[in-house]
Amino acid sequence: MIIRSLSVILFWVVCQVTPAAEAGTALCNANYSGTPQMSTFPQGVEVRYDPRNGTIVWVKGKDLGTELKYLQEIEGRAAGMDAVEVALTYICAYRTLFHLRCPRTELSVKRSWKDTLGMDHVHFTQQWAGVPVEPAELSVHFDRNGQITAIHGHYLPTPAQIDTVPELTPKQAVEIVAHVLGVDSGILTGCRVELVFFNTGTKAQLAYRVYAEKSLVDAQVIVIDAFEGTVLDRTSALQTKGPSLQHMGDSIQLR
Fold first, then answer.
1. What residues contact 117, with CB distance under 8 A and at least 6 apart?
2. pLDDT at 109 over 50
3. Average pLDDT, stretch 29-41?
4. What is the mean pLDDT of the segment spanning 34-62?
5. Contact assessment for residue 91 and residue 74, using Cβ atoms and an 8 Å cutoff
6. What is the pTM of this model?
7. Contact 176/229 with Cβ under 8 angstroms?
8. What is the maximum span of the chain, computed from C-alpha positions, in angstroms?
């Protein structure tokens, strides 16, 4: 009986301390085991890196995919791939330079469109282990011939080393927000809470993004560190309107 109990406890502990991101990393390794990694951009390509975290702010050139001609899917649309697939294939090949472990699972298409000149544009958002990185974006631009001409963004290196299990509960985050706003948490019954990786500019921090309405004319989005409970960011939801609410989670009903 004792041995069986210890086995159950050991299994529970192992499951609890294993980060969810490890599964994602294993999947990435399997997905890209046969995909080549480019170590440098082609000559003549202009690149600017963010000195705070090493990610790419922008990269541009007449044909960024010169060295990827041997990848049939990059040569154009002959293989039937759309702009999204071409963009992802490109970023995957240069994933080391982009500081992204698994672009196909980290990047989600927010918008893909063709402008009036016939040029495609793909706008991605970032997430890891099911948790969105905010704010974070990466955009890929094509010419009329389907060649990538520019990529720019504001994102973070893959936050694979950060625990995705918060110490604080959503209710505790709402109580902290109520304290910050100087009101009783009981009146914030319509708060919307989402777990995110907050982009501080230098690194990612696991946090709760809380939309709170203090009154009809005072609504704010407050970001709370999911481990220490400190305020990481605070903005007016009346200024940002819709976009600030698009990714918010379910309402939290406090008791």
1. 144
2. yes
3. 62
4. 83
5. no
6. 0.74
7. yes
8. 73
